[in-house]
Amino acid sequence: MSSLPRRVKSEAKAVTSEDDELPSFLNSSSESEEEEEEWEPKSKITKKPRLPKKNEGKSKKNAAARSAVAGKKGKKVAVKKEMDVSLPIAAAEGNRMQLLKPKEEDAGTKAKNLNQKPGVTKKMEANSFQGKNVSLECDEKPSTSIPVVGNQVKHEKSEQDFAFDEPPFKKIKSTACPEGKPVKSLGGNKIKEEFEMNWDIVQTLSEITNVEPWVCANLIRLFKEENTIPFIARYRKELINNLEADALREVQQTLEELRTVAKKTHTMMQKLKKEGKLSGCLLTALLNCRTLEELDHVTAPYKTGSKGTKAQRAKQLGLEPAALSLLQNPMELNLFSYIRPNIKGLSTIQEVEAGVQHILADIFAKDKDTLDFIRKLCQQRYICIQSALAKVTSKSGNEKDIDKFQLYHEFSCNIKNIQHHQILAINRGENLKILTVKVNIPDGVKNEFCWWCVNERWRPKQFLKPELMRILRNSVEDAYKRLIYPLLCREFRSKLTSDAEKESVMMFGRNLRQLLLTSPVRGRTLMGVDPGYKHGCKLAIISPTSQILHTDVVYLHSGQGFREAEKIKRLLLQHNCCTVVIGNGTACRETEAYFADLIMKKYFAPLDVVYCIVSEAGASIYSVSPEASKEMPDLDPNLRSAVSIARRVQDPLAELVKIEPKHIGVGMYQ
């Protein structure tokens, strides 16, 4: 402790005694000139390091080694040694002030700074000594008045980087992830896919899932880098705008569907190209497809075994130029010139008009703008789905199955309001050929669509003769009735079914979660009862650790109830069992009334017996399963179900996981 003041005094004397040890920019102009004469470039310093003068005494060397201010000829050595000395550092503001103080005050401020607390990193020491020692600047360039500003600016930055009285803060990366705030793009919303289509995958994905485009772009990149949904949801929140895991799964599934459509589209394009059927119009129609239904609609005429559409047959007869001419240059069109008496399909003017009409209808039905308009129109109108009893089934069919669908014999509902379970029921009835289903689109949609096509979208560029205008109107109506209406019905039915199936799975998950998380009844001996009439009620008593203590069969509903009551009482007293678990199957209510009557009469005294009812869904199937045979090889299958019923109360999770999910009976349809 006594050595510290001596060191401070010796260092102060060393500083005040040597004028040439002050920084060059604090000396007068004459001193700075002397400094410039002795300055050497950095390259020379590395080759020939400077050594201290020989005539300096040992005491002076030791004092210079301990002091924070290095000598003019040994600046690097002095700074390096000072970093090893665990002396306190002056505050940043004090250092900045020292740059402007005269020579006499330098020693005083240095002695004052030595009384501060130690424990600062080497990087801090180097920065804090910039006010007193300019070795870093002097090694590279001559000392002028410019380094003062540089040192001040540099020193201000060091004040922000760390505090002297506190440990250094952990820096946050502000470029990639700014403190958890959303990062809108990793590289723009334009993403190159393996199979290019006419629609942008980011924009389409955003429209379908109602997620921001920049989030969709980030998700596509993250999925491409094989990041999992748990990882993205936990550690990439700023890139996905804090989306939930369920929303991420929906986006991933939709993305896979869009990529499937793109892949199938390009496969079909290559196939049609090999067959020589790929025209420019067909190529555009294929690249515009966004769903598998649209792709099937476009490619149906070109499938193997298909006879071809009416439009294809008309094109083979050479009527396509006439159809295009009707839209673009109708003044020069003469349909009579296409009549060929010996060729079927061209023999009369009516057949020629029908062929042109089929080609035009095919063009209208595959146009992207036309389909977008009719879809938008349907969203604004009342579209309903209707089901009725099939005529064939009503004559000859299973009455039991028909009665199941009694609610849907004359059913009608708006597609926006219909429930998911109703869609599944209608689909099942249709698959069993008990119901007939159709989507009803009002006539107002058809009328508005036809007017829009004739007067706006497909309006001819020149004046049309009345007979050609009639062909155009008939073509639009034919396109709607024969091609567009069935397409819309398939799209509506497909979307409703898809949504209903998703909801049924989600509902099953919610119900199953609640069932598995039912609170267990721990630490009790339980009696499980599988009720029945003819084969009696099966009993199983299990210990608090789920061990089987006793199994038996009693006949409560065949006139032997009083005699069996003694047997049940004896078993309950023998095993000190106070809880009875009754399955909710056949004869459940009668068994419940039997036990309730005995409990009310206090028949089981001194035991305070209570009962509960539990679902026995899947217990019968489990009792004959291989798992149950391995677990309870010596028990009869009927008694196994009683054991399962008791264990469902004692530990629901451990027992229900043994049963197949489809047999638990908590879904929309069992």
From TrEMBL:
YqgF/RNase H-like domain: residues covered: 524-623
Top-level taxon in the UniProt lineage: Eukaryota
UniProt biased composition (Low complexity): 62-71
InterPro entries found in the cross-reference section: Ribos_protein_bS1-like, RNaseH-like_sf, Tex-like_central_region, Tex-like_dom_sf, Tex-like_HTH_dom_sf, Tex-like_N, Tex_YqgF, YqgF/RNaseH-like_dom
GO biological process: nucleobase-containing compound metabolic process; translation
SUPFAM superfamilies noted in UniProt: Ribonuclease H-like, Tex N-terminal region-like
GO MF term set: mRNA binding; structural constituent of ribosome
UniProt-annotated stretches for the region Disordered: 1-79
Protein name: SRBD1 protein
Gene that encodes it: Srbd1
